[in-house]
Design a protein that fits this description.
The protein has 149 residues and is mostly helical. The chain contains nine helices and no strands. The chain has one domain. The longest helix has 22 residues. It starts with a helix and ends in a 5-residue tail after the last helix.
Amino acid sequence: MLTQAQVLDLLKGNIHCSQIVLGEVADQLGYSREEGYKLANAFGGGCFIGDTCGAVAGAMIAIGIKYGNDEPGNKKQDEICKAKVKEFQDKFKERRQSLICRELLGYDFAKPEERKTAFETGKVFGLCPGLVLDSLEILNNILFEEDSK
């Protein structure tokens, strides 16, 4: 498991929360870390406009890879995926009260001046590593809980 310092180094190296989360579990899902980073790149900073938190989005991608439905008409698999998504969302919201980047940070990334302020004040580097670590802990429990039983 990553440490807070490792997450911070990745963030400072322009690897977004979404990328860190998916990259950390990618190998267990049949992808390389680099492929995970690419798949999740567009979801950082709430898709760069402060919507769904990147740490959450990276987890949603991972859940989709493992539990997603790829067969038209397969309602059962679709329901399994939806249940895993809800489980993750509920647990994350229980810890952090929101799934939305702008609500978590208090800055709206859709506004360039607020995004700049979020970085200048240290809010991103102070808060986001914890969001990533929370997301990874919850995600690992969801993705791999039955694998260890």
